[in-house]
Design a protein that fits this description.
heterotrimer, A alpha/beta (263), B mainly alpha (425), C mainly alpha (322), A: Rossmann fold, 10 strands, C: mainly alpha, MetI-like fold, 2 domains, two-stranded antiparallel ribbon
């Protein structure tokens, strides 16, 4: 399989749609009737004060919430026209299409190479060793890490710096060649320089992928995203073009949040 | 456009099948482990349940004064020294008038346990007014008769291979018909010490031996364990000596128990000349063995007492010792007691070290204190398991059942104490 | 006014301090003395075993003990009796011990590990709360009970299966003892491995699951490799237990010092020989009695060595994810 296969880029086409999504943790409601569209080859930022449900909502997209027993999701989320919560959907296949990068870099205690090769191996994506190497190198290049680690692919992934580790995790997610990459506050544990590198990386990645990012930094959302959704107490208060949101928000609550009066 | 269907592909089917298999391996592993547990309990229970009943034979015994106390003194010593065997033989002769010859009468008498004469003796000693009367007395049958009554003797095999001959079985059947052979609750099991005769053997001596050993063990290990834990948790500075003690305790917990027995043998018996085969030495050895467990458990309890309590006391001007012993230790005590009881439960089941210090002898007498020779319950189990007589098999199992009951009770006590007294922070 | 008051209080406090100080010192002394008992125990074990072992090595050379292939400690009653010297080669005992431990580990490792994985990763909390204590019950049963079970129930079954398959198995065999010891060891492995598996950070599982790995793939390819050092530690601790276990082998393994790796033959172990040599009448100067201490010293070195390595591995592992 060729990673460089040209994808049909149709700007502003929704690849993922959420309709009337509710999420409950036991009796506590974390997400209250949220509907929004994620557009292809764009970066969508989810912002809001902590505990507003933005991470919970993000984890609905690849059904990572399934791993939590008491978590119940209702409503409809569609990916490429298929209801991802339908019983016919295989969650393994879903997660191969929708990758995830977590808040804290979590490389496996394996070599850099093995970290990236993990996904292609489990999904049987490479037919030969050469192909596997090809996937790993391409993924590392796309994650902007290859030049830094090309001579030490056998070193443990945990030997890298924090920023490099996070890029390794991005490379690991890319290696499965997903359509969408979900990022849950990927820069919150990084210094500004490492953050800047990852932000540049995301900008270049959106040519190939659709990115949904949860961030607590409004500046970051403003810098990188095309669309922004503002979450408050489990509800989407406002959703639209990032530029408009940060200059002339429709809602007073949004205004208060982005100007720092609440949060 | 790429294929974006999310349904299960053939490759995924295989992976899911693997997943299911993997889960089943786990379930099967647990199932096998637990069925061993159940199998063991059931096997032992079925072997042991019978031992709680003992076959008795009802004999009309004439407590003939001329045989027991010919001069009518009523002196307990004379009664104790009297020979009660003729009482039984006479009664048997009445019950089986057709049995005459010398060897036949002897064989008949062998249906009755040789311990019965002592039972009769004790009976008369306690109730001297029995003398001169005729009573129906249920005397203990031998183990062979007992096994036959419990259906554990195969009549079809040749009588040369059996200790209970066809003639004996005929007599037993005769007794059965006249309704004077019955299975009754086995009081001997709980009232007697060890015996060579399975039907007379009991666990009281061993149980008391265990009790005295555990008493010594508790008196030594509880205070020492707590004080050591308090020192290490509350007082000791982090230095090399403390480290040494810590490493030492962790490793001591892993020393094979039999090595503690050798320690007892060479230090306490040979060097200090403490009395051999006694609960005193057994208790000391068990205490040294359980000490590490108690210390480790107590330390984790002390660690769970929040620092705010110490700060509050220290802030009021209490000294270190006052803080520790007035505030911290009382809060931790229930937890430490729980840990100690669990440690003692382990000690109760311990056998190997006791073998080394001679608590493995054949002891009939019931121990009355920590310096009397004794065995312990697990050692008694070991001894009986080693005995060739078939009658001991069910007694061994019964002793195991009793031991397990004690263990369960101690664990329940620990759980109860934990629920009732322990605080959660 | 305030000044005088502070002064008198100050005095009283100083007075109190003196007697408390003494008391504190006395209590500290008692505490230290108690802590030393643990050290004294270790010292006592090492000194007493070494002392008697050295007396033994004065009679029997160390090399003969360590490398001798024959074990028949019966010293002759008459001087002219054949084999009057007695042979004290520990190798047959060591192989017997290791054979039984090996069988035990073959039983306990898969059962313990799969149980631990299931309990840690799959079981619902309710199941876990039931099954875990039940498994740990296996560790709480006195070993004399296992010994009885091995000798009276398991050995005849193995023998019956053997004669059914057409070959003869002795009534005391390494198999029966090893099998039952394996059951006893299950909770040692499952409990510690369970802890170790739980200590693997959830983030690693999320990463793997998030890429579309199945749970089993996540466990075998990420969780277990990450937990390997800790699991190794738990296995070593179990082996150390197996080597030092006494009652099961005394009751089910036999006394014959066969230098054999056949699990269906009777073999003897170090602990069995210690018990045989030291129960019953003993003269304290005979090589026979002293040999028990030499074996015990060897046993202590083996188990402590394993234990120290195991604790180091587990400790380093715990620190890694702390």
């Amino acid at each position: 399989m060729d990673m460089e296969t040209e994808k049909k880029v149709v700007a502003n086409q929704a690849i993922m749609t959420a309709r009337n999504v509710d999420v409950f943790y036991g009796k506590k409601q974390a997400i209250d009737n949220v509907s929004l569209d994620i557009l292809e080859n764009e970066i969508t930022a989810l912002i809001g004060p902590s505990g507003c449900g933005k991470s919970t909502f993000l984890r609905c997209f690849n059904r990572m919430n399934d791993t939590i027993d008491i978590c119940k999701v209702s409503g409809k989320i569609e990916f490429a026209g298929q209801d991802i919560y339908s019983p016919k959907v295989d969650v393994v296949a879903l997660r191969a299409r929708i990758g995830m990068v977590f808040q804290k870099a979590n490389p496996f205690p394996k070599s850099i190479f093995e970290n990236v090769a993990y996904g292609p191996r489990i999904h049987d994506l490479a037919e030969s060793k050469a192909e596997l190497e090809d996937i790993v190198i391409t993924s590392l290049k796309r994650a902007g890490l290859y030049d830094e680690v090309s001579d030490r692919l056998e070193d443990p992934g945990t030997s890298l710096s924090g920023g490099q580790q996070q890029r390794l995790c991005i490379a690991r997610a890319i290696a499965v060649d997903p359509e969408i990459i979900l990022m849950d506050e990927p820069c919150s544990a990084l210094d500004p320089i490492a953050t800047a590198i990852i932000e540049d990386l995301m900008e270049s990645m959106k040519r190939h992928y659709t990115i949904v990012i949860v961030t607590h930094s409004m500046a970051q959302a403003a810098r990188i995203s095309q669309k922004t959704a503002f979450f408050h107490l489990g509800k989407v208060i406002e959703y639209g073009e990032t530029e408009k949101m940060f200059t002339t928000p429709d809602n007073e609550l949004t205004q208060n949040y982005i100007s720092g009066r609440i949060g | 456009m790429r294929d974006l269907t999310l349904t299960t592909s053939d490759q995924l089917k295989k992976r899911h099948a693997k997943e299911t298999r993997f889960q089943w391996y786990g379930r099967i592993a647990i199932l096998i482990s637990l069925s061993f547990l159940v199998f063991m309990f059931v096997a032992i229970f079925f072997r042991g349940a019978g031992a709680f009943q003992q076959t008795k034979i009802g004999l009309d015994i004439n407590f003939d004064q001329t045989l027991i106390d010919p001069t009518g003194t009523g002196d307990p010593e004379i009664i104790a020294n009297a020979n009660f065997k003729p009482l039984i033989t006479k009664s048997l002769a009445q019950a089986f008038p057709e049995v005459t010859g010398r060897s036949e009468t002897r064989a008949l008498y062998k249906l009755i346990s040789s311990g019965s004469v002592f039972e009769l003796g004790n009976m008369v000693k306690e109730n001297p007014e029995l003398i001169g009367t005729s009573q129906k007395i249920w005397v203990t049958a031998t183990s062979e008769v007992d096994l036959y009554m419990k259906g554990k003797i195969d009549e079809t095999i040749s009588q040369d291979l059996r200790r209970l001959k066809d003639r004996d079985i005929a007599w037993v059947k005769q007794l059965q018909e006249s309704g004077v052979i019955k299975r009754k609750f086995n009081t001997a099991l709980f009232n007697n010490g060890d015996s060579r005769e399975p039907e007379m053997a009991g666990i009281l001596g061993a149980a008391l031996g265990s009790f005295f050993s555990l008493l010594v063990c508790f008196l030594i290990s509880f205070p020492l364990g707590i004080l050591t834990a308090v020192y290490l948790e509350e007082y000791a500075k982090k230095n090399r000596i403390t480290d040494l003690i810590e490493v030492n305790i962790n490793n001591l917990a892993a020393v094979p128990s039999i090595v503690f027995g050798l320690l007892g043998l060479s230090i306490f018996l040979n060097f200090f000349n403490l009395p051999r085969s006694t609960p005193l030495v057994g208790g000391i050895v068990l205490a040294l063995m359980t000490l590490p467990t108690i210390i480790i458990a107590s330390r984790s309890i002390l660690r769970s007492v929040p620092n705010s309590i110490r700060d509050a006391a220290l802030g009021l001007g209490a000294s270190k010792t006052q803080t520790t012993f007035h505030h911290v230790v009382p809060l931790a005590l229930p937890g430490m007691l729980t840990g100690t009881i669990l440690g003692m439960a382990r000690a109760l089941g311990e056998t190997a070290p006791l073998l080394m210090i001679g608590m493995v002898a054949f002891i009939v007498d019931i121990p009355k204190g920590v310096t009397d020779v004794a065995t312990s319950l697990p050692v008694q189990i070991f001894l009986w398991a080693d005995s060739p007589e078939k009658g001991f098999v069910e007694r061994t199992s019964a002793a195991i059942i009793v031991l397990l009951i004690f263990l369960v009770l101690m664990n329940l006590l620990a759980v109860y104490l934990r629920r009732k007294l322990e605080r959660r922070w | 006014m305030t000044k005088t008051m502070t002064k008198s209080m100050d005095l009283r406090l100083r007075h109190a301090n003196k007697s408390t100080q003494l008391k504190e010192l006395a209590i500290k002394f008692v505490l230290i003395a108690s802590s030393l008992v643990a050290i004294l125990t270790t010292a006592g074990i090492i000194v007493s075993l070494s002392y008697e072992a050295f007396r033994f090595f004065a009679k029997v050379p160390l090399s003969e003990f360590l490398f001798g292939l024959d074990w028949s400690p019966q010293t002759a009653i008459r001087e002219d009796q054949v084999g009057s010297s007695g042979a004290f080669g520990v190798i047959p005992l060591l192989t017997g011990t290791l054979l039984i431990s090996f069988i035990a580990m073959v039983v306990a490792t898969p059962l313990g590990l799969y149980s631990a994985v299931y309990l840690a990763e799959y079981a619902k909390p309710r199941t876990r709360n039931w099954v875990k204590p039940l498994l740990e019950l296996l560790a709480g049963i006195p070993t004399v009970v296992y010994g009885f079970f091995a000798a009276l129930v398991v050995a005849p079954i193995i023998r019956g299966m053997g004669s059914g398959a057409g070959f003869d198995i002795s009534s005391e065999s390494a198999m029966a003892a090893g099998l039952v010891m394996g059951i006893m060891l299950i909770p040692f492995i499952s409990s510690l491995s369970d802890d170790v598996i739980n200590a693997v950070p959830q983030a690693l599982r999320d990463a793997s699951l998030g890429m579309g790995a199945t749970k089993a793939e996540t466990i075998t390819k990420v969780v277990l490799p990450a937990a390997t050092p800790g699991i190794m530690g738990s296995l070593l601790l179990a082996i150390s237990r197996a080597i030092g276990e006494t009652m099961i082998v005394v009751m089910a393994a036999g006394l014959a010092a066969n230098l054999s790796l056949n699990p269906f033959e009777a073999v003897t172990t170090m602990t069995v020989q210690i018990v045989t040599l030291l129960t019953g009448d003993q003269e304290f100067d005979s090589a026979k009695t002293l040999a028990a201490f030499a074996i015990a010293l060897y046993l202590l070195i083996l188990t402590l060595g394993l234990n120290i390595i195991a604790l180091k591995i587990v400790d380093r592992y715990k620190r890694k994810y702390a």
